[in-house]
Specification:
- By secondary structure, the protein is mainly α.
- Helix content is 69%, strand content 3%.
- Helix 14 runs parallel beside helix 16.
- The radius of gyration is 22 Å and the shape is globular.
Length: 383
């Protein structure tokens, strides 16, 4: 009996309670909005409750694993992920024009999801091993480690997930010491490209014009972002309805379960990618500010764990995971409000989906493991 009690107390000590409190508030708010968003499909509400339980269980298990052990698993996880991505390339399941899933016998998996966590783990391990003296060749090697999974995911095609994987990996490389001077030319190139796209919008978005580097549906997403009214009942429908729902919420919102855009089925994908539109319509500007405060607290706690991490591996990984949460929130809200192209990025702890929640739970478990890790002190030899 005492052994069981000791195990329970030990497992509870692994929990980062401020982080858990923030996650509980976000989860409770997410389930509240989900109840309104599902409409007549009550099974999705029950499924989301189960998804949360699984995600928190995964978080708890991962939190109990010392981050030093996770560090040793970085290479096997990375190689396993690459093998699965190659499996998708040659034997993957195609659905709606995309080949992103792989049948492994007992279940169907989406390897690109796991790479959101595996890639930063691998890069954090790499820079931890080379922390004594970083050279340009080390950053180039890290770039190769990042580009391999990124390229395989882009080919599926799944640009949204590929960009998330690239972002988390890039944050590791930047936090490891990449000079800002090397990023300045890329920033100038990005701004120049954006200006040229805006200037030549009519030519670039004309039917039949091939962008070469993007698939046709990705071209339509960018062009729809620039002017949703060109196809209000087709490619621009998602963006227009999302903006209408947010605008109609006003300052105070229409009230819980009173959103007309939601319950008259105007908001597409209202339980997944566009759940923020449901939330903003029913809770208004004040509700949106409250949600942003909760996400800000999540980011602040993540950065606090980053600063207090005892190892280089922990600092790099915690920083990248925290920034991953930021990218999730920024991209999802940005696409719903019409300032970013529509990509399949869920709103953390709000959108429906088992895989995404388990990924987020795993990431939070890693943060907790980093938070409570204490390196073993070698005994001082006696004279």
């Amino acid at each position: 009996m005492s052994r069981v009690m000791n195990w329970i107390l030990g497992s509870l000590r692994c929990i980062d309670w401020p982080l858990l409190l923030i996650l509980a508030l976000l989860s409770g708010l997410g389930m509240t909005v989900m109840h309104s968003a599902v409409g007549n499909t009550d099974w999705r509400f029950a499924d989301q409750g189960r998804n949360f339980l699984v995600a928190f269980a995964v978080m708890w298990v991962v939190a109990m694993i010392p981050i030093s052990r996770m560090m040793k698993m970085a290479i096997p996880f990375y190689l396993f992920g690459l093998v699965l991505l190659l499996g998708v390339e040659f034997f993957g399941i195609t659905n709606k024009g995309a080949t992103r899933w792989l049948d492994v016998g007992i279940t169907v998996v989406q390897p690109s999801e796991m790479m959101k966590l595996v890639v930063p783990m691998m890069l954090a391990w790499y820079f931890d091993k080379h922390r004594a003296k970083l050279r340009v060749i080390d950053f180039l090697a890290a770039g190769v480690l990042l580009l391999l999974p990124f390229t395989l995911i882009v080919k599926q095609p799944d640009l949204g997930t590929a960009l998330l994987v690239f972002a988390t990996g890039f944050f590791i490389i930047y936090f490891a010491g990449l000079s800002f001077k090397l990023l300045a030319p890329l920033f100038v190139l990005g701004v120049t490209t954006l200006v040229l796209i805006l200037y030549y919008e009519q030519t670039l978005c004309a039917p039949g014009f091939d962008w070469v580097v993007l698939h046709e549906y990705q071209k339509h997403r960018v062009c729809t972002l620039l002017d949703p009214s060109t196809d209000p009942l087709g490619k621009g429908f998602h963006t227009i309805q999302g903006m209408i729902a947010i605008g109609s919420g006003g300052i105070y919102g229409k009230g819980y379960m009173q959103g007309t855009q939601t319950h008259l089925d105007f908001i597409p994908e209202r339980t997944t990618d566009f759940i923020f539109a449901v939330f903003a319509e029913e809770f208004g500007l004040y509700g949106g500010i409250l949600l942003l405060i909760l996400y800000s607290l999540l980011l602040l706690r993540g950065f606090f764990i980053t600063l207090k991490a005892k190892t280089q591996f922990g600092r790099l990984l915690a920083g990248a995971l925290t920034m991953m949460f930021f990218v999730y929130v920024f991209v999802n809200m940005g696409m719903v409000m019409g300032i970013l192209p529509i990509v399949g990025v869920p709103l953390p702890f709000m959108s429906y989906g088992g895989t995404a929640l388990v990924t987020l739970g795993f990431a939070c478990g890693l943060l907790m493991s980093i938070s409570n890790y204490e390196p073993s002190k070698s005994p001082v030899p006696e004279n």
